[in-house]
Amino acid sequence: MNELLLVGFVAFAFLLTAWASAHLCARWAERLPRSLARSSSSRAAIALLPIAVGTGVALSLVSPPAFFGGCHCIAHPHHIHLCFEHAAFSWSLAFASVVAAIGLVVAVRAVVSVLVDVNETARWSSRLRVTRAERDADIGIATELEAGAVTVGLLRARIIVGATLWSQLDETGRNAIAAHERAHVARRDPLTLLVLRLAACVMPGRASRMLIDGWRRAAEMACDRAAAQSLGDPYALASALVECGRIQSLEQRSSRRAAGLAAADSDDLELRVSSLLEEPISAATRSSTRGDLIGVMLAMAAVAFAVTVLGGASAHHAAETVLGWI
């Protein structure tokens, strides 16, 4: 029973740290320098930072016996111990465990909602009547999508473009949209988006939306840069984006737009076009075709480990002291 309360307190520390860190990260993200603000990898790292810090803090609370091979309970008999070997009942631990249980229930419900949305998105895309484009075998044309362009699928992503949009674009516009969506596929953006949405389940709503929207915006610009590099002409892509925005504004968009889609549409159109025209296409642009997920996950694992090691005994003893005061 006492060990269970200790686990509950560690869960409480994780949730509290992630929740507070999300607020700070959301504010920090709005003050990023321009180059970092338009970097999807930076945005993804900031969106996952609350999870990394929360994990590090949670591990720090049990790190002395778990990671450093020692227990200081005998040397510090004056307060409660966060130690599985010497765990004792405390009303403060019980209260924290109850709060953690409520928080985990809310988080699990949010996770289920995300997974249901992913499943519904997959079912929605599978029901579309898709025909292959004549010159682009990897592009599917769907009448039901009207003027949209989406990338669907996690491990085997595919590109679907609305028939109205495809028919009204010229050859250059089609190549531009295809290049943009292929960048989403190469970067595995739908999978990255899923990971970010799952991580956001333990964060406050407004902060999580800001963090995810920031990544979405940066990912769209990263795909724009990759498409411009592929075409060799950023002006052609900018023109295609403007044309897409015009067509989409004229069409009644009755098709379903799920939260799990990585899609090119008219959102943030002015920002994306200005970014294309202001930033020269250079060798650095090639990095836009690399996905954010693996590198960011490794970086966050390093952050969690660093917080655990550096916080270690100090965080552990500080938490025990505070609990002793309570």
Write a structural description.
- The longest helix is centred in the middle third of the chain and has 37 residues, at 91-127.
- Mean pLDDT is 81; it is low at 253-259.
- The protein is elongated, with a radius of gyration of 24 Å.
- It has one domain.
- It is mostly helical.
- The two termini are 20 Å apart.
- Helix 3 crosses helix 8.
- The protein has helices spanning 2-29, 34-37, 40-67, 91-127, 163-168, 171-187, 189-199, 205-231, 234-250, 269-278, 293-325, and strands at 130-132, 139-142, 149-152, 158-162, 262-263.
- The protein has a five-stranded mixed sheet, sandwiched between helices.
Q: How many domains?
A: 1
Q: What would the principal axes of the Cα set say about the shape?
A: elongated
Characterize the main sheet.
Answer: 5 strands, mixed
Strand content: 5-15%
* Poorly predicted runs of 5 or more residues: 253-259
* Structural class determined from secondary elements: mainly alpha
How are the strands ordered across the major sheet? 1-2-4-3-5
The rounded Rg comes to 24 Å
Percent helix range: 55-70%
**What is the residue-mean pLDDT, rounded to a whole number?**
81
Number of strands: 5
Order of helices and strands: HHHHEEEEHHHHHEHH
Distance between the termini: 20 Å
Q: Helical stretch count?
A: 11
